[in-house]
Design brief:
Elements: E1 2-6, H1 16-27, E2 30-32, E3 36-39, E4 52-71, E5 74-84, H2 88-102, E6 113-117, H3 124-131, H4 136-145, E7 149-152, H5 158-167, E8 174-180, H6 190-200, E9 206-207, E10 210-211, E11 216-217, E12 227-233, H7 237-249, E13 256-262, E14 270-271, E15 281-289, E16 294-296, E17 300-307, E18 310-316, H8 324-328, E19 335-343, E20 346-356, E21 361-364, E22 376-377, E23 383-384, E24 391-392, E25 396-399, E26 407-410, H9 424-431
Parallel strand pairs: 2-5, 3-13, 14-15, 18-20
Antiparallel strand pairs: 1-4, 1-6, 2-4, 3-4, 4-5, 4-13, 6-7, 8-12, 8-13, 9-12, 10-11, 15-17, 15-19, 16-17, 17-18, 19-20, 20-26, 21-25, 22-23, 23-24
Helix pairs in contact: 1-2, 3-5, 4-5
Length: about 450
Amino acid sequence: MFVALDDTDSREGMCTTFLLTEIIRRSKLDVIGFPQLVRLNPAIEYKTRGNGALVVNLAKGKGTQTVIGNFDGREIRSYAEVSEEPSVDELIGLSRDAVMEFSELEDPDTNPGIVISRSRFPQGLYWESVQGEVSIDHAENFVIENGGIFIKVKSGRGIIGAAAAISWPMLSTTYELLVYRYPKPERIEASLKESIARWCDTIPGTFNNFDPHNRYAAIFPKERTPVVFGVRGVEYEPILEAVPEMLKSSPIAHERYLIFSTNQGSDDHIIHNSEKFMENCSYEVTGYVEGIPRIIEGSHYFIRFRTKSGSIDLAAFEPTKEFRELFRNLKPNDELRVFGTYRKGTLNVEKMEVISVSQIFVRSSPVCGSCGNVMESRGHMDYRCRNCREKETLPRYRLKERSLIPGKYDVPIIARRHISRPYELENIARKARTLNRVTL
C-alpha cells in the first residue's frame, strides 16, 4: 500500500522525510522496495526548501531483505515482495495522526496532503509536476480517477506532490541516506562538518558532498530541521556499508537513519527542444552569444543570447560564485548549450556546455620585411620602419588566444539544485562499483 505525503514543513522547521520515518515507525509494517524522495519543479514559487515529496510502500513483506535504516536501535528492513496488504483505514489513521502532530501547521504556507493507493499511478502527473505547475483540483481528479484516496489539511496543496510521487516512473534513480535527530540537531562545528563531508567523498559513487573552493559541506543543512546530514550516491550499497559504520564512532548525535531512492541528479525538470518558454519552467537551449556580459549590483552577470526562438538573457547570479568567471569570458558568436530556469525573459543558468568559441583577431602594426622590426603607425594606412624606412599600408591581424575553451561546466556544489544532474556525475557513475546496477 503506497502512502505519500508532501508540504508538511516550512522554511524554518520540520522535514517531510522525517515525518515519513515516523509513519514507518508507528506502522510496524515492512517497507517494500525503497522509500522514495521525489523532487518536483524546483522553480515553483510556493515550495519551501527542496520541493520534495515522499512515498513508501508499506505491507507485510517477504523475499529478499535489505537493511535500509535504523530507528533507535531497531533495524528497518526492505523486502522485495508483499505477503499481506495492510488495512486502508489503518494507514489513513496513522498517517493523519503523524501529519497533524509533526507538520508546521502554524505556518500559513504549510498545507499538508496525504495520498494512499494500492498501486502506482500513471507517470503523467509526475512529468506535469516536475516540469510545470499543477492545480489542486487537477491532482484531486487524478487521484480519484486512478483509484486513490487523499486527505487534505488546510488547503491540502500537498496532495499535488504526494500524487506526483506515486507517479514517479523511476527512469533515473540515485540514493540518499538521511540521518536524523528530533526535533533538531545540536550545532556542529564547521571543521567537523568539513571533515565528515570530505570523508564522504571517499565513498564510491557519492556526489555533491563537499565544495572545496567555497569550503562548503553540502551534506549538512542548516540546523533547523531534524535532518543532521544526507549522503547522495549512484548506488546504495557503498553508502549503507560506510555511513552506519562511521556513525558508530562519530561524535555527532543521531537517533535514526534511512536510505531513500530518489530522482536527484536526474535533470527530469529540464524541458528539451521547446520553441517557447513558460515562466518558472526549466529548459535546455542551444544558441549563440550576442553581446558582452553586463554586471549589475550584487555581482550578478547577464548576457544576451540568441536562440532559434528569439533572444533572451542568460544569468549567472552571485550564489553561483566562480561560475560567473565563464560569463566574463564569453564573446559574441560563442555557441552554447545551456540549462536553467526561465523567469521574466531570463534563463538562470544551472550548467553550460561551450560547444565552440568564436575567433577573435587582434590588429597590430606590420613587421618590416627587411629587418624584422615592428613598424610604426604614421596615420591611416601608413606604416614606416624606423631602421629601413620601408613602408606598408596594411596592418597585420593575429588570432587572439581565448581563455575559454569548449567543454562542459557545472555551477559549484554550493549552488546546485537537488534535481539537477551535474556533468561530473557521468564520471562518478563510470567509476562507481558494479556499474551494471547504475540506472543513470
